Every structure is written in structure tokens, then in C-alpha cells.
TrEMBL record:
Annotated Pfam families: Usp
Domain of life: Archaea
Record lineage: Archaea, Methanobacteriati, Methanobacteriota, Stenosarchaea group, Halobacteria
Protein's recorded name: Universal stress protein
SUPFAM superfamilies found in the cross-reference section: Adenine nucleotide alpha hydrolases-like
Database matches in InterPro entries: Rossmann-like_a/b/a_fold, UspA
Region annotated Disordered, chain positions: 139-158
Record-annotated UspA domain positions: 5-133
UniProt organism field: Haloferax marinum
Length: 158
């Protein structure tokens, strides 16, 4: 069984959806099922960033982009989730779908931007409940540290 057999793939927007599909493409032979998820962050008592209906419509649009680009080659499930903690919601989705890993394409950004946004990536890879796989555009995969019997910061070429 491959670590990528049943992956949860979070996407933030249309650009991220396309970049993620591109980064995931070299590994499709190992993947049976992709659950692509967009988490709409709720304010937790504060005013939401945009009207909810628009946010859901936008999310369905870029989830559809992933489904269209991958659907012929692998089973794709799309989900729009809501929560005050994006990382927790991604992990909960992975548990609900019996995922073997969470695979994501890093969106980069400055340290300040990551700090101000709460850095979902850091929250995902710090003591993860299941393997977290970072995909990059150069065709390399980085897995979460050694909790699963692998080496720290394992790099696998596609």
C-alpha cells in the first residue's frame, strides 16, 4: 500500500487548485482516491470575510477544477467544510475519509504573512496524526517526520 493511496488534498483557491493538481500528477499511479477539500474559515464571533453564498460558490468552482483535471485518472470526492481552525478541519476530513495521508502544495509566502495568517502548514505538520506530504512543482515529495517509521524530512523523487 502506498502512502498516497487515499489522500486528502486541501486547496485554498483556483490558483492553488491548479498548482496542486500539477504537483500531484506525477504520483497518480499510486493514488486510488483523492478527497479535495476547501475549508471556509468561520470568524468565531466576528464578521465573516465575504458573503457565505459567494464563498461557497467560489469554493465549488475551484473544487470542480480539480475534479475535472483528475477525474478521468483517479476517483475524486470534493468537500466544502466550515470551521474556525482550518488545519483541524483538514485533519478531521482526513479521519472521516480514512485517508492514508494529507497531500498539499505549499503556497509559500513570507514568514510575516504566514505568522499573520496562522500558518496552516505549520499546524498540519507539527505532530501530525497521519502522514503529511508536501508536494512541490519540481516533482519532489517531502513527508512529515519520522513518526511513521521513515526518515526525517524524507524526499522522494517522482
Amino acid at each position: 500500500m502506498s502512502i498516497l493511496e487515499r489522500v486528502v488534498v486541501p486547496v485554498a483557491d483556483e490558483r492553488d487548485a491548479i498548482a496542486t493538481v500539477t504537483a500531484l500528477a506525477p504520483y497518480l499511479a499510486d493514488i486510488q482516491h483523492v478527497t479535495v477539500v476547501h475549508v471556509i474559515e468561520k470568524g468565531g464571533g466576528v464578521v465573516d470575510k465575504a458573503p457565505m453564498e459567494k464563498r461557497v460558490t467560489d469554493a465549488n468552482g475551484f473544487l470542480s477544477t480539480v475534479e475535472t483535471r483528475l477525474g478521468e485518472r483517479v476517483t475524486v470526492e470534493t468537500r466544502v467544510e466550515f470551521g474556525t481552525n482550518v488545519a483541524e478541519k483538514i485533519v478531521a476530513t482526513a479521519r472521516e475519509t480514512d485517508a492514508t495521508a494529507i497531500a498539499y502544495h505549499s503556497r509559500g509566502g513570507t514568514r510575516l504573512a504566514r505568522f499573520l495568517s496562522g500558518d496552516t502548514t505549520t499546524r498540519l505538520v507539527t505532530d501530525p496524526e497521519l502522514p503529511v506530504v508536501s508536494l512541490d512543482s519540481a516533482g519532489r515529495v517531502h513527508t512529515s517526520p519520522n513518526r511513521y517509521g521513515g526518515d526525517d524530512d524524507t524526499e522522494v523523487s517522482g
